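stuck on this one:
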Amino acid sequence: MCLLNEEELFQLVDRVSVQFFQKPFKHKVCYNHRLRTTGGRYLPASKCIELNPKYAIETNESEFIGIIKHELCHYHLHIENKGYGHRDPEFKALLKKTESPRYCKPLPSNAQRRKHVYECVKCGFIYKRVRKVNTRKYRCGKCGGEIYLKGL
């Protein structure tokens, strides 16, 4: 999927809102290029939805629409003065009803970050780490066996 301009993005969010929630989206939606670890966020004070543009570029359309549906769950519940937080039962029920994802998948571009691969001698469990681990100090969390650096 390519990056949409603000008008096209608003139309997409409104179309998803009407299709899955049977209610229009009446506020602002925009890209936030500073988002790193999340696909999007809902700002209750301004009723604005911010979306991570990397998810629009690097993932398929269904994944991006899933992120939009998740943020619309926050939006519509907040508008109706219901529990819109991640822990609220109303939020969890609406996620399930609209088949929205609870979390977004990691970006494909971030998957290459894990440089160090360790393996347990005893059980063979693989550990992938960004930072190096002192193999004399740490052991396998599953069985307590020794771990060794398998590769980079």
Q: What stands out?
A: The longest strand covers residues 116-120. The mean pLDDT is 91. Residues 41 and 50 are 5 Å apart (CA to CA). The longest helix spans residues 61-79.
